[in-house]
Amino acid sequence: FGAKTNGSDDLKAIISAISTLVEEATFVATAEGISFRGMDPSHVALIDISWPNSAFEKYECDSDIKFGVRIDEFSKLIKRADKKDSIEISISEQNMLLVTVGKNKKYKMRLIESSATDTPLPKIPYDSKIMLSSSKFDKILGDVQVVSDYLTIHTSDSKGDFSGKGDSGEVVIDLDKDDEDIEEISSKEDSVGTYSLEYLNPVVKAVGNTAGVITCEFSSAKPLRIEFKVANIGRIHFYLAPRVES
Amino acid sequence: SQGQRDITSYF
Protein backbone atom coordinates (compact mmCIF):
# COMPACT_ATOMS: atom_id res chain seq x y z
CA PHE A 1 0.00 0.00 0.00
CA GLY A 2 1.23 3.49 -0.83
CA ALA A 3 -0.53 6.79 -1.37
CA LYS A 4 0.88 10.19 -2.27
CA THR A 5 -1.20 13.35 -2.05
CA ASN A 6 -1.04 16.35 -4.29
CA GLY A 7 -0.36 19.13 -1.78
CA SER A 8 -1.29 18.88 1.87
CA ASP A 9 -4.59 20.78 2.23
CA ASP A 10 -6.97 17.87 1.66
CA LEU A 11 -5.27 15.54 4.11
CA LYS A 12 -5.08 18.37 6.67
CA ALA A 13 -8.82 19.00 6.26
CA ILE A 14 -9.65 15.30 6.63
CA ILE A 15 -7.51 14.80 9.73
CA SER A 16 -8.81 18.01 11.22
CA ALA A 17 -12.43 16.94 10.64
CA ILE A 18 -11.83 13.52 12.18
CA SER A 19 -10.04 15.08 15.15
CA THR A 20 -13.24 16.91 16.11
CA LEU A 21 -14.87 13.53 16.88
CA VAL A 22 -12.34 10.88 17.85
CA GLU A 23 -8.88 10.42 19.35
CA GLU A 24 -8.11 7.21 17.50
CA ALA A 25 -9.02 6.55 13.89
CA THR A 26 -8.98 3.46 11.73
CA PHE A 27 -8.62 3.98 8.01
CA VAL A 28 -9.43 1.36 5.41
CA ALA A 29 -7.40 1.27 2.21
CA THR A 30 -8.62 -0.71 -0.79
CA ALA A 31 -7.81 -0.59 -4.50
CA GLU A 32 -10.55 2.08 -4.80
CA GLY A 33 -9.10 4.47 -2.24
CA ILE A 34 -9.01 5.31 1.46
CA SER A 35 -12.07 5.58 3.67
CA PHE A 36 -12.89 6.38 7.26
CA ARG A 37 -16.09 6.09 9.23
CA GLY A 38 -16.47 6.81 12.91
CA MET A 39 -18.61 8.30 15.65
CA ASP A 40 -17.79 10.49 18.63
CA PRO A 41 -17.74 8.65 21.99
CA SER A 42 -21.26 9.78 22.94
CA HIS A 43 -22.66 8.72 19.55
CA VAL A 44 -24.12 12.09 18.65
CA ALA A 45 -22.19 12.63 15.41
CA LEU A 46 -20.75 10.45 12.68
CA ILE A 47 -18.22 11.18 9.95
CA ASP A 48 -18.05 9.19 6.73
CA ILE A 49 -15.16 9.92 4.41
CA SER A 50 -14.41 8.38 1.08
CA TRP A 51 -11.22 9.47 -0.65
CA PRO A 52 -10.94 7.90 -4.13
CA ASN A 53 -7.64 6.74 -5.63
CA SER A 54 -8.09 9.26 -8.45
CA ALA A 55 -7.57 12.09 -5.97
CA PHE A 56 -4.01 11.01 -5.27
CA GLU A 57 -0.90 11.81 -7.24
CA LYS A 58 0.14 8.18 -6.78
CA TYR A 59 -1.92 5.38 -5.30
CA GLU A 60 -1.48 1.66 -5.03
CA CYS A 61 -3.11 -0.94 -2.86
CA ASP A 62 -2.82 -4.62 -3.74
CA SER A 63 -4.85 -5.96 -0.86
CA ASP A 64 -7.31 -4.34 1.55
CA ILE A 65 -5.77 -3.12 4.78
CA LYS A 66 -6.88 -1.36 7.93
CA PHE A 67 -4.56 0.89 9.85
CA GLY A 68 -5.18 2.74 13.09
CA VAL A 69 -3.54 5.97 14.21
CA ARG A 70 -3.76 8.35 17.13
CA ILE A 71 -5.19 11.41 15.45
CA ASP A 72 -3.24 13.95 17.53
CA GLU A 73 0.05 12.23 16.68
CA PHE A 74 -0.80 11.99 12.97
CA SER A 75 -2.05 15.57 12.94
CA LYS A 76 1.25 16.89 14.35
CA LEU A 77 3.19 15.27 11.50
CA ILE A 78 0.80 16.44 8.80
CA LYS A 79 1.00 20.01 10.09
CA ARG A 80 4.74 20.02 9.33
CA ALA A 81 3.79 20.08 5.64
CA ASP A 82 3.63 23.33 3.74
CA LYS A 83 0.59 23.86 1.53
CA LYS A 84 2.37 22.61 -1.58
CA ASP A 85 4.14 19.68 0.07
CA SER A 86 2.94 16.27 -0.98
CA ILE A 87 2.45 13.69 1.76
CA GLU A 88 3.24 10.08 1.05
CA ILE A 89 2.10 7.31 3.35
CA SER A 90 2.86 3.61 3.41
CA ILE A 91 3.18 0.89 6.02
CA SER A 92 6.48 -0.69 6.97
CA GLU A 93 7.07 -4.35 7.67
CA GLN A 94 7.54 -3.39 11.32
CA ASN A 95 3.94 -2.11 11.26
CA MET A 96 4.88 1.55 11.38
CA LEU A 97 3.24 4.23 9.27
CA LEU A 98 5.86 5.81 7.03
CA VAL A 99 4.98 9.41 6.35
CA THR A 100 7.09 11.39 3.90
CA VAL A 101 6.33 15.08 4.13
CA GLY A 102 7.51 17.08 1.13
CA LYS A 103 10.73 15.77 -0.40
CA ASN A 104 12.90 15.18 2.59
CA LYS A 105 11.03 14.72 5.86
CA LYS A 106 10.61 11.03 6.51
CA TYR A 107 8.63 10.24 9.63
CA LYS A 108 7.80 6.88 11.11
CA MET A 109 4.78 6.76 13.33
CA ARG A 110 3.55 3.91 15.45
CA LEU A 111 0.25 2.40 14.42
CA ILE A 112 -2.31 1.41 17.01
CA GLU A 113 -4.34 -1.73 17.24
CA SER A 114 -7.48 -0.96 15.32
CA SER A 115 -10.58 -1.78 17.28
CA ALA A 116 -12.91 -0.55 14.56
CA THR A 117 -16.11 -2.38 13.91
CA ASP A 118 -18.25 -1.69 10.91
CA THR A 119 -20.40 1.35 11.56
CA PRO A 120 -23.61 1.62 9.55
CA LEU A 121 -25.00 4.91 8.28
CA PRO A 122 -28.25 6.48 9.48
CA LYS A 123 -31.10 5.42 7.24
CA ILE A 124 -33.35 8.41 6.91
CA PRO A 125 -35.23 10.23 4.19
CA TYR A 126 -34.25 13.86 3.69
CA ASP A 127 -37.14 16.24 3.09
CA SER A 128 -35.15 19.45 2.93
CA LYS A 129 -31.98 20.71 1.40
CA ILE A 130 -29.96 23.89 1.71
CA MET A 131 -26.84 24.44 -0.36
CA LEU A 132 -24.64 27.36 0.55
CA SER A 133 -21.02 28.43 0.67
CA SER A 134 -19.13 27.07 3.64
CA SER A 135 -17.93 30.57 4.53
CA LYS A 136 -21.55 31.76 4.71
CA PHE A 137 -22.53 28.77 6.85
CA ASP A 138 -19.56 29.38 9.16
CA LYS A 139 -20.66 33.01 9.56
CA ILE A 140 -24.25 31.98 10.31
CA LEU A 141 -23.08 29.53 12.98
CA GLY A 142 -21.12 32.39 14.56
CA ASP A 143 -24.20 34.65 14.39
CA VAL A 144 -26.31 32.05 16.18
CA GLN A 145 -23.63 31.07 18.69
CA VAL A 146 -23.70 34.49 20.37
CA VAL A 147 -27.15 33.74 21.79
CA SER A 148 -27.53 29.96 21.62
CA ASP A 149 -25.76 26.62 21.92
CA TYR A 150 -28.10 25.14 19.30
CA LEU A 151 -28.90 25.86 15.67
CA THR A 152 -32.45 25.43 14.44
CA ILE A 153 -32.94 25.03 10.70
CA HIS A 154 -36.33 25.64 9.19
CA THR A 155 -37.47 25.25 5.61
CA SER A 156 -40.80 25.82 3.95
CA ASP A 157 -41.03 25.26 0.19
CA SER A 158 -38.10 27.21 -1.18
CA LYS A 159 -37.66 29.45 1.86
CA GLY A 160 -35.43 28.80 4.82
CA ASP A 161 -34.06 30.31 7.98
CA PHE A 162 -31.53 29.56 10.67
CA SER A 163 -32.34 30.48 14.24
CA GLY A 164 -31.22 30.08 17.81
CA LYS A 165 -32.56 30.72 21.26
CA GLY A 166 -30.79 30.94 24.60
CA ASP A 167 -30.98 32.45 28.08
CA SER A 168 -29.84 35.85 26.84
CA GLY A 169 -32.09 36.13 23.79
CA GLU A 170 -32.72 34.78 20.34
CA VAL A 171 -31.92 35.28 16.66
CA VAL A 172 -33.53 34.48 13.32
CA ILE A 173 -31.52 34.68 10.10
CA ASP A 174 -33.67 34.54 6.98
CA LEU A 175 -31.98 33.03 3.96
CA ASP A 176 -32.09 35.23 0.90
CA LYS A 177 -32.20 33.19 -2.29
CA ASP A 178 -30.76 36.10 -4.26
CA ASP A 179 -27.65 35.94 -2.10
CA GLU A 180 -24.88 34.53 -4.31
CA ASP A 181 -23.63 32.48 -1.34
CA ILE A 182 -26.89 30.51 -1.32
CA GLU A 183 -27.24 28.01 -4.14
CA GLU A 184 -30.40 26.15 -3.32
CA ILE A 185 -33.20 25.90 -0.79
CA SER A 186 -35.75 23.17 -1.37
CA SER A 187 -38.16 21.14 0.72
CA LYS A 188 -40.60 18.39 -0.05
CA GLU A 189 -42.17 19.03 3.34
CA ASP A 190 -41.81 21.88 5.80
CA SER A 191 -39.00 20.83 8.10
CA VAL A 192 -37.55 22.01 11.36
CA GLY A 193 -34.58 20.49 13.14
CA THR A 194 -32.36 21.59 16.03
CA TYR A 195 -28.67 20.65 16.22
CA SER A 196 -25.87 21.20 18.70
CA LEU A 197 -23.32 23.87 17.77
CA GLU A 198 -20.81 22.09 19.99
CA TYR A 199 -20.51 19.47 17.23
CA LEU A 200 -21.29 21.61 14.19
CA ASN A 201 -18.88 24.47 14.74
CA PRO A 202 -15.61 22.51 14.96
CA VAL A 203 -16.23 20.42 11.86
CA VAL A 204 -17.30 23.40 9.77
CA LYS A 205 -14.19 25.26 10.94
CA ALA A 206 -12.04 22.22 10.16
CA VAL A 207 -13.24 21.60 6.61
CA GLY A 208 -14.68 24.99 5.77
CA ASN A 209 -11.50 26.47 4.34
CA THR A 210 -11.07 23.68 1.83
CA ALA A 211 -14.74 23.14 1.00
CA GLY A 212 -16.46 25.50 -1.37
CA VAL A 213 -20.15 24.70 -1.25
CA ILE A 214 -21.74 22.56 1.43
CA THR A 215 -25.06 20.77 1.30
CA CYS A 216 -27.23 20.48 4.42
CA GLU A 217 -30.00 17.88 4.27
CA PHE A 218 -32.45 17.10 7.05
CA SER A 219 -36.04 16.29 7.99
CA SER A 220 -38.08 17.39 11.01
CA ALA A 221 -36.54 16.06 14.23
CA LYS A 222 -34.22 13.78 12.25
CA PRO A 223 -30.44 13.84 11.82
CA LEU A 224 -28.73 16.51 9.75
CA ARG A 225 -26.35 15.42 7.03
CA ILE A 226 -23.77 17.86 5.76
CA GLU A 227 -21.82 17.11 2.63
CA PHE A 228 -18.56 18.95 2.24
CA LYS A 229 -17.37 19.19 -1.33
CA VAL A 230 -13.63 19.32 -1.20
CA ALA A 231 -12.00 19.70 -4.62
CA ASN A 232 -9.99 16.51 -4.54
CA ILE A 233 -11.91 14.40 -2.07
CA GLY A 234 -14.79 12.16 -3.03
CA ARG A 235 -16.96 13.01 -0.09
CA ILE A 236 -17.03 14.01 3.53
CA HIS A 237 -20.42 13.34 5.09
CA PHE A 238 -21.06 14.59 8.59
CA TYR A 239 -24.18 13.27 10.36
CA LEU A 240 -25.50 14.94 13.50
CA ALA A 241 -28.36 13.62 15.64
CA PRO A 242 -31.04 16.18 16.47
CA ARG A 243 -32.16 17.61 19.76
CA VAL A 244 -35.83 16.88 20.27
CA GLU A 245 -38.50 17.83 22.76
CA SER A 246 -38.44 15.33 25.58
CA SER B 1 -36.97 20.91 27.54
CA GLN B 2 -34.90 19.35 24.78
CA GLY B 3 -32.94 16.15 24.71
CA GLN B 4 -30.03 15.11 22.54
CA ARG B 5 -30.79 12.07 20.40
CA ASP B 6 -28.28 9.35 19.66
CA ILE B 7 -27.22 8.88 16.02
CA THR B 8 -27.24 5.10 16.42
CA SER B 9 -30.99 5.16 16.92
CA TYR B 10 -31.31 5.95 13.18
CA PHE B 11 -29.23 2.98 11.97
Give the structure's gist in a few sentences.
Chain A is α+β, with helices and mostly antiparallel strands and 246 residues long. Chain A contains four helices and 19 strands. In chain A, the strands form three sheets. Chain A has a nine-stranded antiparallel beta sheet with strand order 6-2-3-4-18-17-16-10-14. Chain A has a five-stranded antiparallel beta sheet with strand order 5-1-7-8-9, with helices on one face. In chain A, strands 13-12-11-15 form a four-stranded antiparallel beta sheet.
What does this structure look like?
The complex is a heterodimer of chains A (246) and B (11). By secondary structure, chain A is an alpha+beta fold. Chain A has 4 helices and 19 strands. In chain A, helix 1 packs antiparallel against helix 2 and helix 3 packs antiparallel against helix 4. The longest helix of chain A has 12 residues, at 134-145. Chain A is elongated. The termini of chain A are far apart. Chain B has 11 residues and is mainly β. In chain B, 0% of the residues lie in helices and 27% in strands. Chain B is built from no helices and 1 strand. The termini of chain B are far apart. Chain A binds chain B through residues 39, 42-46, 120-124, 150, 194, 196, 222-223, 239-246, and chain B through 1-11. Strand 19 (243-245) of chain A pairs antiparallel with strand 1 (2-4) of chain B.
